[in-house]
Design goal:
The chain is an alpha/beta fold and 369 residues long. It is 28% helix and 23% strand. It binds pyridoxal-5'-phosphate.
Length: 369
């Protein structure tokens, strides 16, 4: 017997979600974003599951790209956070990676290379997110330098939206302002005769069907989450990860007795409590409120008391016949991660990426329909 906690990863669901993203943007190619270990799902397994579908992948940094290369992935891989030092250039050339340049020194470094074959680079425009990227004026200057360089090829305009997930008037307005900024910069370059392919959309912009461009960069939607605020959990996307465990103890607690650290929860009446092998040391959020849903044998149970490092406790009142064989679902299958995230006052992204290394990933796959 081993500790029963595991993250079951459904690779057929991943491909299903990829096809949904492709349907949202039939004109575009998709850069499947696999950063942060594929949002906690395991980047190597996810890349291989998508290798026949996705024309390219996106990661944050070169270490993540090299792990994919070592596993045999040959598709182009974009480095979304650019490069961090000059030593990366040799590897970028050798492994045919696509850095998304966001600083002038990075453009200089590319121009100073003497590569055997042309290097593909993308260039990041700050259209209003004000995180990474060049201002429109600086962008134009650096674009022209890259375009004039004989050993640079395939330059794309990349920008990132700050509010594509929002639905307030302000957020929508800001989104359109950013799009207009990108279109304005692209059209100025086109007037000068440049070919300007673009890559604008993340998951929310892809799902909204608003963004144009030659490439889209969906991340979280591939894993089954619609990140748009006020959107109820998607019926079109399928959850890829199910975090599941077992009860390891069942206790009857007398009225007035407390459960767990700090005695935060006090039983109002005699209560049956289940102890689940899963805690914050596994990535379950310690901020989970009283009442955060958990499924025990498919029935709704609720977190009571504080989450510990290796365990959490649930109220079993609504579960007819709990036993030490009972399957516990923390999120995924029939329990949307969005719902759990809301009870933790966080977002699905943090829960997924936070699943600890000690939690084994179990991969299941089925033939595509
Ligand atoms: C993470 C990331 C994405 C994917 O975002 P999602 O909201 O997960 O779709 C796209 N582009 C960049 C630059 C990113 O860092």
């Amino acid at each position: 017997m081993t500790r029963p906690l595991r993250a079951v990863i459904d690779l057929a669901a991943l491909r299903h979600n990829y096809r949904q993203a492709a349907q949202c943007a039939p004109q575009a190619k998709l850069l499947a974003v696999l950063k942060a270990n594929a949002y906690g799902h395991g980047a190597v397994a996810c890349a291989h599951a998508l290798a026949d579908n996705a024309p390219a992948f996106g990661v944050a940094c070169i270490e993540e790209a090299l792990a994919l290369r070592e596993s045999g992935i040959r598709r182009p891989i974009a480095l979304l956070e650019g490069l961090f030092d000059l030593e990366e250039l040799l590897l970028i050339e050798r492994e045919q990676l696509w850095p998304v340049l966001n600083q002038v020194w990075q453009v200089d470094a590319i121009l100073n290379m003497r590569p055997q074959a042309p290097i593909t680079v993308w260039l990041k425009l700050d259209s209003g997110m004000h995180r990474l990227g060049l201002s429109p004026e600086a962008f134009l200057v650096q674009w022209r330098r890259l375009a004039a360089c004989p050993h640079v090829t395939g330059v794309h305009l990349v920008t990132h939206f700050a509010t594509a997930d929002g639905d307030t008037e302000h957020e929508q307005h800001y989104y359109h302002r950013q799009r207009q900024c990108a279109e304005h910069v692209a059209s100025r370059l086109r007037q000068e005769g440049h070919v300007v392919p673009t890559c604008l959309a993340n998951s929310p912009a892809t799902l909204s069907g608003l963004a144009a461009g030659q490439w889209h960069r969906p991340g979280v939607m591939l894993y089954g989450v619609d990140p748009r605020i006020k959107q109820s959990p998607s019926h079109v996307l399928k959850p890829v990860m199910t975090l599941e465990s077992r009860l390891i103890a069942i206790r009857d607690i007398a009225a007035g007795e407390s459960v767990g650290y700090g005695g935060r929860y006090v039983a109002p009446h005699t209560m049956r409590i289940g102890v689940v092998a899963c805690g914050y040391g596994d990535g379950y959020d310690r901020h989970a409120r009283e009442g955060t849903p958990v499924l025990v044998d498919g029935e709704l149970a609720q977190v009571v008391g504080r989450v510990s490092m290796d365990m959490l406790t649930v109220d079993l009142s609504q579960v007819p016949a709990p036993s030490l064989e009972s399957r516990v679902v923390l999120w995924g299958d029939n329990l949307p991660i969005e719902t759990v995230a809301a009870h933790c006052e966080t977002i699905s992204y943090t829960l997924m990426t936070g699943v600890a290394q000690r939690v084994p990933r179990i991969y299941i796959d089925a033939q595509d329909p």
